[in-house]
Amino acid sequence: MSIDKVSSIDRVSSDETDEVGRILFESFKEIADRHGFPPEFPTIHNARGAARWLVGVEQVVSFAARGRSLEGVTFMSLLDDIAGIGPVAVDLAAQGRGAGRRLMQAAISEARDRGHPQVRLIQDAFNVTSLSLYASLGFQVVEPLAIVQTPPLQATDLPIRPADLDDRSALGALYERLTGVRRDAEITLSLQIGTVEVFERSGVTCGMVACYDDNRVNFGAAETAEDLLYLVGHRAALKGEVVQWALPMRHPGLLEAAVTARSRVVKMGNLMAIGEYEAPTAPHAVSFWY
Ligand SMILES: CC(C)(COP(=O)(O)OP(=O)(O)OC[C@H]1O[C@@H](n2cnc3c(N)ncnc32)[C@H](O)[C@@H]1OP(=O)(O)O)[C@@H](O)C(=O)NCCC(=O)NCCS
Predict the structure, then answer these.
(1) Is the pLDDT of residue 254 over 90?
(2) Residue 6, pLDDT above cutoff 60
């Protein structure tokens, strides 16, 4: 089904990003406040920046639910084989009337139409509405996540360096070997507009983390939990503050390594998936899409 067959869903236009940012900020803040957790977007300025970024990436498609005004939005990455949905937000005044479901149905349909049978997202475990909505649309919970904040690493002599575009094919191969997932386009995007840090042992690259320009690690993977923690802690040292990332709790020893490295658990989440899912064998960080 193409997008125009889903009633009153169309694209977000580039002159709507302030309004999209307001909806993101207010809706995420309301549910986080209700449960006593920190908001997803710390400020409206931050949410508007995210909206501008999402609308600006060519292979990220947007969905706008409209009534008399803009009621809700979501975005979907079609950068690589796996489609990643998020964030999804419905204006506080319009919640509970089906806009979230219509947005999600439109995104799932478009992913299928464009040849992406695997669709993934992450959600906050305290959010019973989104958990139920996604489950009713066929998403399975495949990984429980701990959202953790890791402080700056004190060590300064680690074999970690920023990657550049010349590294992209090696990084794509490394990430695929460690996780079983091809993520070449998003690695390239991270190299172009963010940062990818690599960990090398005896000249061999054995881990990587990809970040955009904020205090979060987006995605990454390494041979060992310790290597991944070195990479995350190094990123925190570069930023001079804690960095936040999503840690798959089932991975043996990873949560232990994180809390041993003085990470604080902020909240719990779930990685949810439509289509085939195989848990990566290597320790890894899950992004806001998958
Ligand atoms: C989550 C969100 C996008 C949902 O949008 P919405 O327009 O309010 O949701 P809808 O009305 O389309 O659908 C909600 C569905 O969940 C169901 N639901 C809600 N709470 C439920 C519960 N506790 N148990 C079971 N089902 C529940 C509703 O009955 C409804 O199903 P229905 O269509 O069969 O009636 C919206 O609430 C929001 O913006 N929240 C704040 C931001 C956010 O949390 N985003 C998601 C982050 S993971």
Answers:
(1) yes
(2) no
- Count other Cβ atoms within 10 Å, centred on residue 260: 12
Beta strands in the chain (DSSP E): 9-10, 60-66, 70-77, 83-90, 119-124, 140-150, 160-162, 195-201, 204-211, 219-222, 243-248, 264-274, 284-285
Task: Give residue ranges with CB within 6 A of ligand 1.
Answer: 27-28, 31, 88-90, 95-101, 123-124, 127-130, 132-133
Instruction: Provide the 10 A C-beta neighbour count for residue 165.
Output: 12
Atom of ligand 1 nearest to the CA of 27: 41
Helix axes 44-56, 17-35, angle to 10 degrees: 130
pTM of the model: 0.96
Contacts of 144 (CB under 8 A, 6+ apart): 125, 248, 249, 250, 268, 269, 270
In whole angstroms, what is the distance from residue 260 CA to residue 134 CA? 34
Report the distance separating Cα 75 and Cα 67, nearest Å.
18
Q: How would you classify the pairing of strands 9-10 and 195-201?
A: unpaired
